[in-house]
Design a protein that fits this description.
6% strand; 2 helices; 2 strands; single chain; mainly alpha; two-stranded antiparallel ribbon
Length: 63
C-alpha cells in the first residue's frame, strides 16, 4: 500500500512540499500553537506583543 498517491507525489516533486489535511490531530496542533506563543513571549490577542524582525504586526491571522 502506497503512503502517498501518485498525485500527491507529483505535487511534492513539483512544489517541494505537500499539505496533508488531518495529518496532525487538532489537539496536538492547538497545544503546539500555545507553546509557540509562550516560547516567543507573545500574546496572539495583544498585537503590541507580536513582533518579528523589529516590525510590529497590527493585523494577523491565527490559523
Amino acid at each position: 500500500m502506497a503512503v502517498l498517491t501518485d498525485d500527491q507525489r507529483a505535487q511534492y516533486e513539483k512544489d517541494g512540499y505537500l499539505l496533508v489535511s488531518g495529518l496532525i490531530p487538532d489537539g496536538v496542533s492547538e497545544r503546539a500553537e500555545v507553546a509557540m506563543w509562550k516560547l516567543m513571549g507573545m500574546d496572539p490577542e495583544d498585537p503590541s506583543t507580536v513582533v518579528a524582525l523589529g516590525v510590529i504586526f497590527f493585523e494577523f491571522t491565527v490559523l
